[in-house]
User: Which sequence fits this backbone?
């Protein structure tokens, strides 16, 4: 309501306005009996600013000074000389920031070396040039026949155990000694390696004779004998239809296996027998 009365007197002169403000008790000169609240004082100041918004700043400053508004603890923005509007909140002094040493970047970890490829203990058996090999592995629990993809096949097994009480022969793989079964398995791997690229002479023998390409896996086992009678592998045409693929197990467990050169020699010998006997090859053989 006070603002309405003051706004209604917008065009009053400065003297009349000052008198009006004095009546309502604005500023620091109000009597102790004045019941005006602080809110009314603030409203009066605000109204005065609006009434004198079009007046010169010098008129407002004079009124502010007469009414004690300058430096009364409140920033009266319409009083251009009010020091209360110049107060800036104190800012705590910022402690000096310690310099941070540069951190060296950690070098990238060296790549771990690739693990060395596992060594195949049966690799010597797959080398078609080695006649005597040693296999550092237990024998397979079961015998696996090589595939027939090459057109040649290897049956078996046949052990001749060269010690007292040994079986001569036994066709059971499970009845073979550990060393004998190990060499029997190695001999089968050797057959598979050679027949992966069968010698031309062997292919020609199969095509020109009555032999159909069948072998049988035979092993002379001296691993438990009183002497070492292993002298080397052999190929022997037991019948025209079946060639014995003969390996030997030495007293020291070494395996004596047919080689590529031995197969080529057998093919040549059996080829001559076939020409002489109308395709029959029984009895032909080759040894180192």
Assistant:
């Amino acid at each position: 309501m006070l603002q309405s009365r003051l706004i209604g007197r917008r065009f009053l002169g400065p003297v009349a306005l000052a008198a009006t403000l004095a009546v309502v008790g604005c500023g620091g000169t109000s009597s102790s009996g004045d019941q005006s609240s602080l809110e009314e004082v603030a409203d009066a100041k605000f109204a005065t600013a609006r009434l004198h918004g079009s007046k010169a700043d010098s008129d407002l400053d004079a009124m502010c000074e007469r009414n004690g508004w300058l430096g009364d603890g409140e920033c009266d923005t319409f009083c251009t000389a009010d020091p209360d509007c110049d107060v800036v909140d104190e800012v705590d002094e910022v402690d000096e920031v310690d310099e941070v040493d540069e951190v060296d970047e950690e070098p990238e970890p060296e790549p771990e070396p690739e693990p060395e490829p596992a060594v195949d203990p049966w690799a010597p058996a797959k080398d078609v040039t080695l006649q005597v090999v040693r296999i550092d592995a237990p024998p397979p629990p079961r015998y696996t026949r090589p595939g027939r993809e090459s057109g040649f096949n290897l049956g078996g097994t046949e052990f001749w155990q060269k010690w007292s009480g040994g079986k001569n022969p036994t066709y059971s793989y499970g009845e073979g000694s550990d060393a004998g079964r190990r060499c029997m398995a190695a001999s089968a791997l050797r057959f598979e390696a050679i027949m992966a690229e069968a010698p031309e002479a062997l292919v020609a023998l199969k095509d020109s004779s009555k032999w159909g390409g069948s072998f049988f896996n035979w092993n002379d086992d001296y691993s438990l004998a009183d002497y070492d009678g292993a002298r080397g592998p052999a190929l022997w045409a037991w019948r025209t239809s079946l060639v014995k693929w003969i390996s030997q197990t030495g007293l020291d467990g070494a395996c004596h296996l047919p080689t590529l050169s031995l197969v080529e020699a057998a093919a040549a010998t059996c080829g001559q027998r076939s020409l002489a006997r109308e395709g029959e090859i029984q009895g032909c053989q080759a040894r180192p």
Q: What stands out?
A: Residues 178-195 form the longest helix (18 residues). The chain has a mean pLDDT of 81.
